[in-house]
Design a protein that fits this description.
Elements: E1 2-4, E2 10-12, H1 29-38, E3 53-54, H2 66-72, H3 83-96, E4 100-104, H4 107-118, E5 124-127, H5 132-140, E6 144-147, H6 168-178, E7 186-189, H7 202-215, E8 219-222, H8 226-236, H9 245-253, E9 258-262, E10 272-276, H10 279-292, H11 303-316, H12 319-322, H13 324-338, E11 351-355, H14 356-359, H15 369-381, E12 383-384, E13 386-388, E14 408-412, H16 420-435, E15 443-447, H17 453-456, E16 458-461, H18 465-477
Parallel strand pairs: 3-12, 5-6, 7-8, 8-9
Antiparallel strand pairs: 1-2, 4-10, 9-10, 11-14, 13-14, 15-16
Helix pairs in contact: 1-15, 1-18, 2-11, 3-11, 4-5, 4-10, 6-7, 8-9, 13-16, 15-16
The structure holds pyridoxal-5'-phosphate (PLP).
Length: 481
């Protein structure tokens, strides 16, 4: 919840109390330099012990509630027909309005199953924006992703409240060009992860629904961050000021033929699911679930996580829960902007994003500015960001780099984990880095896997800029921090 103080300042007020804590520590800059060099300038390859604030991702790193933890103690480990599954299925029906629930071990497993049953070789899959694992699975199935975002979706400095909207004109053009037969389905991602956690509006989703219905094309909703998208609709869309997050979620679901999600985000667990009201999709999924994931009532998840997901689904539509990270992110982004840091605006769900093209204009895109910025942020703060730029794009069939639309260093804000003081600290170190940005240069791959290279690829700092940056930092802050 956001509250206004008597000074006029607005702060994100935590609507929970913390009763279990985990110790963290801030290794000095010299140790951070060693760690990032050993990690090949890839923040994925850092060890937790070398990280102060883990802002790599909001995936599976959120704080669970007392009710979720309690539910895990009463889970039913039956291989088949476990009661935990039926409690999940009840929550899916009550919160999302779907009859059939297909559990999967995480979001990408759901994408794999959907690709298996719906994406044929030569198909196209229109979407408001892709996600890394989504694109990988649909392309492995022989499909091509069509990114049908609106004209200003990729502008990082913007006031458009719904940069996650699909461009309806471009969707119509894609239907005219390919015909409904070659379109596997239209995918809408609730808060587009890769362009800064930006939501779509209900009006836009309804337009997508209306157009696809006319052509008999299915709508698939990626609801990994569904509660945040619903929160933004309640705060930003005219006509939804008084509609509850729970009812907004239901209204969104009513536009979709299939919902899938990674439970690691909004529901604060580790798992995933697919849900639908259509028997034909359920039957297709049912055939493959035991092959790839597990029996119908656990789908690769532990019964404890299934149980906690049922609770997490019900809790995520509580407005205090739905807004918990969005409010802190708003504070974080506004603080960055106030210090002149080129953050992605408006604030979105999941993270504060820094535009590396604007932060490091002297680093050419094929020297991976977002990767360099992510490593530099770690070096000066101990906070671990994730690269979301060209490193996150795999090479094309000819072995050439594919320049990403955006070059972002993403600082994820896991739900209910970090505080305002943590945000103030990170913003301060980012401001110092901005003043010393000339020291940061590009990166070059020395080890590069062919698919999803961002996870495990290793790089080196061109001209050894890591040491130069550490030295400048130590001159200002000393050797202790
Ligand atoms: C995280 C995520 C996925 C993939 O889910 P995993 O649980 O990490 O496999 C898919 N789509 C979106 C929008 C996500 O944020």
């Amino acid at each position: 919840m956001r509250v206004k103080l008597t000074t006029g300042k607005e702060i994100p007020l935590e609507m929970y109390k913390v009763r279990i804590v985990q110790k963290t520590s801030l290794p000095p800059s010299e140790a951070r330099l060693r760690a990032i060099e050993e990690a090949g300038y890839n923040t994925f390859l850092l060890r937790s012990r070398d990280v102060f604030l883990d802002m790599l991702t909001d995936s599976g790193t959120n704080a669970m509630s007392d009710q979720q933890l309690a539910s895990m103690m009463v889970s039913d480990d039956a291989y088949a027909g476990g009661e935990s599954f039926y409690r999940l299925s009840d929550a899916v029906r009550d919160v999302l309005g779907f009859t059939y629930t297909v559990p999967a071990h995480q979001g990408r497993a759901a994408e794999h199953l959907l690709a298996k049953i719906l994406v044929k070789k030569g198909d196209v899959v229109p979407m408001n924006y892709h996600f890394t694992t989504t694109k990988a699975h649909y392309e492995l199935a022989g499909g091509t992703v069509l990114e049908l975002y609106g004209p200003d979706a990729l502008e990082t400095d913007s006031r458009n409240p719904f940069k996650g909207n699909m461009d309806i004109g471009r969707l119509q053009a894609a239907i005219d060009k390919y015909g409904a037969e070659r379109i596997s389905f239209v995918r809408m991602e609730a808060t587009t992860n890769l362009i800064g956690g930006q939501p779509f509006s209900m009006a836009n989703l309804k337009e997508v629904r209306a157009l696809t219905s006319k052509h008999g094309i299915a709508v698939v909703l990626d609801g990994s961050l569904i509660s945040e998208n619903a929160h933004f609709i309640s705060k930003r869309e005219v006509g939804y000021e008084r509609v509850s997050v729970a009812n907004i979620v239901k209204e969104m679901m009513a536009q979709a033929d299939i919902l899938y999600l990674s439970g690691r985000k909004s529901t604060c667990v580790r798992g995933g699911l697919i849900a639908t009201n259509e028997r034909k999709y359920y039957d297709l999924l049912k055939a493959w679930l035991p092959v790839y994931e597990g029996f119908l009532t656990y789908g690769g998840m532990s019964s404890k996580e299934i149980e906690a997901m049922a609770v997490g689904l019900r809790e995520m539509v509580d407005p205090d829960v739905a807004s918990s990270s969005a409010d802190l992110i708003q504070y974080f982004v506004e603080s960055m902007v106030a210090r002149g840091i080129p953050a992605v605006t408006p604030p979105g769900g999941l993270a504060g994003h820094v535009d590396a093209k604007r932060f490091l204009p002297h680093v050419p895109q094929l020297q991976y500015p977002a990767g360099a910025l992510a490593a530099a942020i770690y070096l000066v703060s101990g906070a671990r960001p994730m690269e979301r730029g060209t490193v996150s794009m795999d090479r094309d069939a000819n072995g050439n780099d594919v320049p990403s639309d955006l070059e972002l260093a993403r600082l994820a804000v896991p739900r209910r984990v970090y505080s305002m003081a943590h945000m103030d600290y990170v913003v301060d170190r980012l401001a110092w880095l901005l003043e010393h940005r000339e020291l940061v240069r590009g990166l070059r791959f020395i080890e590069e896997p062919p698919v999803l290279r961002f996870f495990t690829g290793r790089m080196v700092a061109l001209e050894g800029w890591g040491s130069a940056l550490a030295k400048a930092f130590q001159a200002d802050f000393g050797m202790e921090c």
